[in-house]
Amino acid sequence: MRSDNPIMKMTMFTILLSWLLIACSKKEDAPVAPPVPPPDDTPVQYGTPFAQVPAPADAVIYQVNMRAFSQQGNFQGVIARLDSIKALGVNVLYLMPIYPIGSVKAVNSPYCIKDYAAVNSEFGTLADLRALVDGAHNRNMCVILDWVANHTAWDNPWITTHKEWYLQDGGGNVISPPNMGWNDVAQLNFSNVAMRLEMIKAMKSWVYTANVDGFRCDYTDGPPLDFWKQTIDTLRNIKTHKLLLMAEGSRNTNYTVGFDYNFGFGFFGQLKAIYNNNRSALTIDSLNQAEYINASSGQQIIRYISNHDVNGAEGTPLELFGGARGSMAAFTIATCMKSVPMIYNGQEVGMADRIPFPFTSVKIDWTKNPDITAEHKRLIAFRNSSPATRRGQLTPYSNADVCAFTKELSGEKILVIVNLRNTTMNYSVPAAIAGNWKNAFGGTSVNITGQLSLQPYEYRILQNL
After folding, report:
1. Which intervals hold domain Glycosyl hydrolase family 13 catalytic (predicted)?
2. Which end of the chain is more exposed for a tag (fewer CB within 10 A), N or C?
3. Angle 291-297-299 (CA atoms, 0-180°, nearest 5)?
């Protein structure tokens, strides 16, 4: 029966309102589920992060070209010689690219990357790479990977799935790096945010999946600086690892974005011109100052007398720097001047044959020239034992034919004098360095004053008494 009683209507309304308020109150008091965090795509860490990564100034770098390094041409071939590499005094092992390479428009270059996340089966498996890293770490050597960020192979899946990640011409066609002649690779578009993030993600993954200790970044002067700043900030945020980051470039601004090293392209070119074009040795001193503009006290130049590029295209150290004696004189400057030295595999046995691109036709004969190997060991052992050599204040005393300088730190002082000519030279000893010293390799006392006669390509390393 319908009721028109206003009191009854008001009572029913009050009851209904109370019920709604109670219901709402219970909902507000109910526990709220926490928000679901975004998925963590960080890989599981393999192994224990290496605790003995050297400070940048203390590094001695060894470049491995896997194809030429051993008869096998793979990771296992490197593992078999880790003790020999360590015996040189090396503490940083730099592996040329280890990733699958492309086959479309390709020339079999290791720098033509088809997949940033995989291991090239030519060299072995991920397990083999891990064994190499473990073996190096067990010998107090860290391992860095070559990283090619500027371009990819034409058959990298990114071209199909993300064409917008690449530079294109007016017709929408992906292009090679402009004005470089590198037709076997496709140029990435660094204006694309998603591409950058995927590239950086791939770099991070190797720190976890293979426990590597850093990267040598190929053609660093190509990609924009803000990309490298983004990359380095991300990598430095991996707090479990101390990473070494090398810029294969010469921009002084590479220091400002956080790289530990620039490559000494200018040093190599000047040194070659001194040997082959009679350029003044004084140019090394002025170049050294220019190379360190924008560098902090810990950042360094990597100096070398050979690498995979110049060895195949220009010549071996024996060809470029006056044979065995001349090349050791050149390497002495690379080892002792304000810098860190890099050895290219085969240099330490005085390898006379070039290792031409794509590095498949020549294998290194490790039995050659044990005397040159011993000289490399002696020179690097001295560097490793001498804080002044690695970190000291440099003062130049060169002339047109002789490179000379002192390095001084905390009471230790060394004097390096190198004749860069293939003829006997008389060096007028400046008053500031005249006096009594000792031979760094034998400890015998040496007095230098007046005119110092130096044999062709002779070098002397002295220490204060």
Report:
1. 63-383
2. N
3. 55
User: One-letter amino acid identity for 240?
Assistant: T
Q: 435-439 and 445-448 as β-strands: parallel, antiparallel, unpaired?
A: antiparallel
Pairing of strands 425-428, 451-454: antiparallel
Instruction: Check residue 428 and give left, alpha or beta (phi > 0: left; psi -120 to 50: alpha).
Output: beta
Phi, psi of 244 (to 5 degrees): -100, 130
Residues of the chain with pLDDT > 90, as a percent, come to 90
Token pair recorded at residue 6 = 């206003």
Separation between Cα atoms, residue 129 and residue 206, nearest integer Å? 11
Answer for the pair 421, 279: CB distance below 8 angstroms, yes or no: no
Residue 274 backbone dihedrals phi, psi, to 5 degrees: -65, -40
**pLDDT category, 354, cuts 50, 70, 90?**
very high
Q: State how far the Cα of 92 lies from the Cα of 144, in Å rounded to an integer.
A: 7
CA angle 340-301-206, nearest 5°?
A: 80
Neighbours of 316 (CB within 10 A): 22
What value does the mean pLDDT take over residues 354-374? 96
Q: Are 187 and 175 in contact (CB under 8 A)?
A: yes
Residue 387 near residue 414 (C-beta atoms within 8 A): no
Pick from 148, 116, 144, 127: which is nearest to 50 by CA? 144
Residues in the chain: 465
Measure the CA–CA gap between 222 and 177, rounded to whole angstroms: 9
Q: Are 330 and 461 in contact (CB under 8 A)?
A: no
91 burial level (CB within 10 Å; 0-12, 13-18, 19+): buried
Which of these, 385, 397, 292, lies nearest to 335 by C-alpha position? 385
Which residues are 261's β-sheet partners? Answer: 246, 300
What is the token pair recorded at 246? 């090398």
Q: How far apart are CA 383 and CA 340, in angstroms?
A: 10
Say what the alpha-carbon torsion angle 128, 62, 49, 111 is, to the nearest 10 degrees. Answer: -60
The encoded tokens of residue 64 equal 């491995």
Dump pLDDT digits (tens) for 158-192.
999 999 999 999 999 999 999 999 999 999 999 99
Run of H or E including 27: helix 6-29
Residue ranges and CATH numbers for the domains of the chain are 56-391 (3.20.20.80), 402-463 (2.60.40.1180)
Inter-CA distances, 417 with 299, 391, 398, 406, Å: 25, 18, 8, 9
